Amino acid sequence: MMVSKQIFTATEIQEWLVSNLAEALKVDTAEIDTQQALESYGLDSTKAMVLVTKTEKMLGFQIAPTILWHYPDIESLSQRLAEESEELNSGAVNPTNSTPVNHVNVDLGAEVVLDPFIRPVSTSFKFNPRPDNIFLTGGTGYLGAFLLHEILQQTNADIYCLVRAANFEAGKLKLKQNLEQYALWDEQLSPRIIPVIGDLSQPKLGISTEGFEMLAANIDSIYHSGAMLNYVYPYQALKSPNVLGTQEVLRMASLFKLKPVHYVSSVAVFESPDYAGKLVKEDDNFDNWQGIFLGYSQTKWVAEQLVKVAAQRGIPITIHRPPLISGDSRTGICNTDDFINLVIKGCIQMGCFPDVDYMLDASPVDYVSKAIVYLSRQEESLGKAFHLQHPEPVPLKQLVEWISSVGFPIEMIPYEQWQEKLINNLSSQDNPLYTLRPFLLERWSDEQITIPDLYLQSRRPKISCEATVNALAGSGIVCPPLDSQLLMTYSAFLMQNGFLTFA
User: Fold this and answer.
1) Do residues 187 and 314 share a domain?
2) Distance between CA 453 and CA 197 in Å, rounded?
């Protein structure tokens, strides 16, 4: 256990956080606003935990993983941490880690309430396979970058992208830099990318009433991919962007002329234990939500139910449920801050993987984005859901054997032994698992299970993607097999950019 030997003031902590956040974001410290929500800087759960872990080391005591929800900006966070520093050194026993993570049981069924005003003004709808104007949320995310690229390739439309930024120029730059980092930027297509300054968590998506109505009158179709992904925040912390944001997207779809909504959901909607071991097909209802305990998964379940309510009212929809998403199968380019990549890197550094019954069903991001855009452009897709996880998953053991064959000294050890090494032997911040420990060790729900437990094969449903594969037949869009060729493409990229190195 860490023991603090020094009392830090709020000012000292604030200066330290500003400096480290600026370093993580590769910006000048002058650009950090201490009263601005940390999430608005693009801190996903992984990056946020890296910051929290570094702060723990500096302060000398542990910090609860949900502290960023209760104290969302640097100013309030610094104040709280200074109080804890003082309490701890004066002998008071109330550091953040002594408070259990408070995840209130939410009645998700009662959360499925779509504003009664969200309904089509007219039931007349003619499917348009060649839209002129498309609205996209989530364009600054990982899948969002590939979706934006794919829509630009498969259509001639102008893409209006919701983006959180100070102004139009900053928004355009943010979208450009996101495409560039995945080698997707094409200067010639730039005029078709139009930033819309707003915020998923705000009414009317943070757009002025006039701007919102203008978009609603001119947009031909909507791709809703935006969501806040955080594995440790509770439902209430994620409700505004993920649930209410979806409601606002559906409002835009129903206003003036009727527009189809292509909603990017998640296989997380099947995390209720009721589906464990059962076959889940694309058109199943999956009304069971009891036992879904991660806040993010809860919001995805509720948001998808809202989309279904909208469909019952006459709004045309398609639902796309991707799994965990892997890199580009052609270039190997991926999001190196991604949970899977960080865990794999950490396990390689530790020299061991847990011997658990996992099936790898992650799909390459180019397959997922191509499939979503193609399926959304077929009239027969309306009203349907699609499963985009890998049609031929492979056991984790196969990945570990492949990593070993490439030359990384690695073994599989029992899960409890691996967990013990994680707690007792890992002290270096250089290993990504060190910063991910709050994810990996936190115990959730009445069963007190960890997040890795959640992905054990015995707890997961068998997700069928047969109808999706059939719908893609003849399109030329096929999910690449998880074979040595694909793994070589991924590892070549990860080694070239220095993410993976031989010790």
Assistant:
1) yes
2) 39
pTM for this model (two decimals): 0.84
| 165-178 pLDDT, tens digit each | 889 999 999 999 99
**Cβ neighbourhood burial of 286 (10 Å; 0-12, 13-18, 19+):** middle
Q: Which residue has the tokens 């047969």?
A: 466
The verdict on 94 and 134 lying in the same domain is no
Q: Which of 461, 475, 108 is nearest to 295 (CA)?
A: 108
Cβ(226)–Cβ(138) under 8 Å? yes
Q: Do residue 73 and residue 118 come from a single domain?
A: no
Q: Which of 41, 63, 98 is the last residue of a domain?
A: 98
**Full domain range(s) for residue 142:** 112-329+362-387
> What's the rounded Cα separation, in Å, for the pair 167 and 159?
17
The beta strand positions in 69-210, using DSSP E, are: 133-137, 158-163, 193-197
Alpha helix ranges (H) inside 198-316: 209-218, 235-239, 245-254, 295-312
Report the helix count and the strand count for the chain, using DSSP H and E: 19, 15
Give the residue carrying structure tokens 């991001």: 365
Each residue's pLDDT tens digit, 288-335:
888 888 888 999 999 999 999 999 999 999 999 999 899 999 999 998
Tokens 């968590």 — which residue? 201
Alpha helices in 157-285 (DSSP H): 168-181, 209-218, 235-239, 245-254
> Number of structural domains, the chain?
2
Q: How far apart, in whole angstroms, are the C-alpha atoms of residue 260 and residue 253?
A: 7
Q: What is the CATH number of the domain that holds 368?
A: 3.40.50.720
Residues 174 and 134 occupy one common structural domain: yes
